[in-house]
């Protein structure tokens, strides 16, 4: 019974670490958020913090996983009275990302590093990309069936292009914050619509 209690406490501490890390990175940026600062935010030593994660890379991947979870909960709460489409949710997340540059920077850096086959964050990004494409394909095909998206488009290719556009826009935005990422994604989505009837 004691082991179960210790396990629950460990899970709770991980969640506390991840929530605090989200705030620190969003506020200070990824480049200035050291493991020491993250540890200080939850009253642990660096070794104590890393006790809860296999590596620094796993810690940062879990921070991004937590960010996705918080974003989903925020969107669900904001649209509790309506069913938000996947496409509308996509635009809203891109709009929200402009408020958390540190997390966008972490995502951009870690996704590039995760191209290494043995990188600790690779499973996170592999699953995230798979899920995004799967949900996008489903949403595109629904739109094709109801006539709001062109029927001649390859849903799987469009889903991959949407993901590429989002990630590329985030990189451009980190270099030029005047770029409106959400507006660009909205424009991309209008290109998927059938031409207006004559």
From TrEMBL:
Organism of origin is Agromyces soli
Keyword Chaperone attached = no
Protein name from the UniProt record: TetR/AcrR family transcriptional regulator
Identify the InterPro entries for this entry. BetI_C, Homeodomain-like_sf, HTH_TetR, Tet_transcr_reg_TetR-rel_C_sf
Keyword Nucleotidyltransferase among record annotations:
no
Annotated DNA-binding ranges come to: 34-53
Q: Which Gene3D superfamilies match?
A: Homeodomain-like, Tetracycline Repressor, domain 2
Q: Show where the HTH tetR-type domain sits.
A: 11-71
Keywords from UniProt, A to Z, are: DNA-binding, Repressor, Transcription, Transcription regulation
Mind telling me which PANTHER family this protein's record contains?
HTH-TYPE TRANSCRIPTIONAL REPRESSOR NEMR, TRANSCRIPTIONAL REGULATORY PROTEIN
């Amino acid at each position: 019974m004691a082991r179960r209690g210790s396990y629950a406490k460990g899970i709770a501490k991980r969640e506390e670490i991840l929530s605090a890390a989200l705030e620190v990175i969003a506020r200070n940026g990824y480049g200035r958020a050291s493991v020491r600062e993250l540890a200080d935010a939850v009253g642990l030593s660096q070794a104590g913090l890393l006790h809860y994660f296999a590596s620094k890379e796993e810690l940062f991947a879990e921070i991004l996983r937590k960010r996705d979870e918080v974003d989903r909960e925020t969107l669900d709460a904001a649209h509790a009275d309506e069913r938000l489409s996947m496409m509308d949710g996509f635009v809203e997340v891109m709009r929200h990302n402009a408020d958390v540059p540190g997390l966008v920077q972490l995502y951009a850096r870690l996704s590039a590093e995760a191209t290494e086959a043995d990188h600790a964050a690779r499973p996170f990004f592999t699953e995230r990309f798979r899920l995004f494409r799967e949900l996008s394909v489903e949403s595109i095909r629904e739109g094709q069936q109801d006539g709001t998206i062109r029927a001649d488009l390859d849903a799987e290719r469009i889903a991959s292009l949407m993901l590429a556009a989002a990630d590329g826009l985030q990189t451009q935005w980190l270099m030029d914050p005047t770029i409106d990422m959400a507006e660009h994604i909205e424009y991309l989505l209008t290109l998927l619509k059938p031409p207006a009837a004559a």
